[in-house]
Design goal:
This protein is mainly alpha-helical and 196 residues long. The chain contains seven helices and three strands. 41% of the residues lie in helices and 8% in strands.
Amino acid sequence: GYDQSKRIGVIESFINAQNKKKALINSIRCLLSYRGDKKRFNEFKRFRKEYFKETDLCKTIEDIKKLNFDVYISGSDQIWNYRITGNKFDKGYFLDFDSNAKKIIYAASSQDVPFPKEKEQEFINLLKHTKAIISIRESSLKEYSSKLTGIDYPMVLDPVLLGGRRILDKLCSNYTEKSKYILIYQIDSNPKSDIS
């Protein structure tokens, strides 16, 4: 079923919040979106089941190795962002394990560079240790990684764009604007875009 930890997290956030008014508004907004979130979750689940052949969830490097694939591909969005992988770089995204399989890290991405000094050394070690072919998505991360290792990594497109217009045009809808609106595509919370 649908993971209800989001709703529990909202309650904990409210209890721990300094600004209770803002936390209450965010909590109400989150709880009101529960039905839509559940529907979206179920649609993604249905799509994955219909179109993807998925393995069991891998939680460790050993789990990944046990798959015994000929090729492993790691990528792309934010895979080298230690802030979202438990405040450390996830070795799985560097394909850092012994195997005769071909390993490719495609369009690796991270939010902020340069990394703090203690993270930078960990990052260098992982880059130098992996046997994977590496390509990077953002120019800032590419230049930073190349400076740290002396290797000129290729910069590549986000995989979403690889299909080109032939595929992307099929996804376009014939939406007609019914009233004035502002579309915001926002990855991280930003207080400047808070409309409450």
